[in-house]
Structure formats: C-alpha cells, structure tokens
Specification:
With about 240 residues, the protein is an alpha/beta fold. It has 7 helices and 9 strands; from the N terminus they run ααββαβαβαβαββββα. It is globular.
C-alpha cells in the first residue's frame, strides 16, 4: 500500500511540477515577488499531495522566525526545502552553484534571490556568500543554510561545515537552529505515511565565539533531531 501511495504521489508531483513550471515562466521576466509566489504555490501543491495521496502530513513546533535571522536547519530530504520555503516569508536560501544548472528549477531559485556558493571557491566563495547574505539581511529577509552542506540519513554522524560560522560572525544576528525528522518519511521514491515534525529551536544570540557557537548549534540541532527521530520511529512502528 505504501508503494502504491508513493506512486500516486509521484505522478501528482511530476504533473504539477511540469504544469506549474511552464505556467509560471512569465514570472521570470517579472519582479522577484512573482517568482516567490510561484514557488509557494508549488510548495503548497506538493505538500497537499503528500497529505492527500501519501497520507503524510506535517507539524510545526516552536516559533517561526521573521525578518533578520540566520536559520540553520538539519537536512534529510527534499521536503525540508519545500517546507522551509513555505513557512519562512521571503527567505534567502544558501544553495550550491550546481543547482543553477537544473532546467526550470535553477532559473526559479536564481530569480527568487537565493545565495549561491561555489564550493570550489574556498575563501573567496565564503566572502561572496557572506556579502550576498548581508544584502538579504539588510532587506529584512531571513537567511537559510543547511550547515552540513548536504542531506544526511537519519542517525548519520553530523558534519557541520565552517560556512555557517562565517555567516553567523558576518551577519551579527541571532541564529535559529531547526531540527526535523523528514528522513524517516521521505525516503527517495518511498513516502511513509505519518507526520513529519519540524521544530524551530530557541535562538542562539549573536556575538558568541566561533567555537561556542558551533558547539551550541550542533548540540541543539542534534539533540532535538534525535528526539524527533525517536518520536517518528515510534509513530512508524505503530503504523505497521
């Protein structure tokens, strides 16, 4: 039954992606807010399909931040990007340059005002990322980064990159850690029924040393994520 539900959702996702990508092409020639509207419609349609066809809903815990803040989120699946884009108003995502090469998707994320980082650029790439992030903060937009740089399987050893510390130091704004358990439910093609939980944790104040910040960020995200994973695993076990 899970595979059937997953297949139906996949067909829905493929259909709305094609239709909406084509329908909103004119937005690329319009002001940036038109592209933001298009992205939110796509995200809403995707999460609606997950709930209706795959029996996979979600729950938000904690206070959703607004305006000038650095959001550092755990990353386990594509769901994370969709949900954060929908929950955070006019956010600026830090993305790897390779994503811009994806037809349609790359065009939209560039137009939406994403912060692009060249992972081969090293020090110069970090400076460019920080400058772009600063412009977003000045425009009262939250900056979103996945501090491990890539998706992680549930329970995998954490690997926090220096980019998040560089942004924290340069932006001088609170950092809101985000924990989630999406990797238990969105596992490639398979979508397990249940409820994903995303949790906005208490902010880390600006001004800490790099070492204290990284330690606090890692402890908060990993502890909360561990709790959410155990909760999600119990939910999955009851559903079997």
């Amino acid at each position: 039954m899970t595979l059937l539900r997953s297949a139906i959702f996949f067909l829905w996702f493929a259909a709305i992606s094609v239709v909406l990508n084509l329908a909103f092409l004119p937005a690329l020639a319009m002001p940036r807010k038109a592209t933001l509207f298009a992205a939110r419609v796509w995200s809403k349609a995707t999460l609606w399909g997950l709930k209706v066809f795959a029996a996979l809903d979600y729950e938000v815990r904690g206070e959703i931040p607004e305006g000038q803040a650095l959001i550092a989120a755990k990353h386990m699946s594509m769901w994370d990007t969709l949900a954060l884009y929908l929950l955070l108003a006019d956010s600026a995502f830090v993305i790897k340059r390779e994503l811009l090469r994806i037809p349609f998707y790359g065009w939209y994320v560039k137009k939406a005002g994403s912060i692009v980082i060249d992972r081969e650029g090293r020090a110069s790439a970090l400076r460019d990322m920080a400058a772009a992030a600063r412009r977003a903060i000045v425009a009262d937009r939250p900056v979103v980064i996945f501090p491990e740089g890539t998706r992680k399987l549930p329970g995998a050893a954490p690997d926090y990159k220096p980019g998040v510390a560089a942004l924290y130091r340069k932006l001088d704004v609170p950092c809101i850690p985000v924990a989630l358990n999406s990797g238990l439910f969105w596992t490639g093609f398979r979508k397990n029924r249940g409820r994903i939980v995303i949790e906005f944790l208490p902010p880390i104040p600006a001004g800490l040393s790099r070492q204290d910040f990284m330690r606090m960020l890692r402890e908060r995200i990993e502890t909360a994520t561990g709790n959410l994973l155990r909760e999600g695993q119990a939910l999955l076990a009851r559903g079997r």
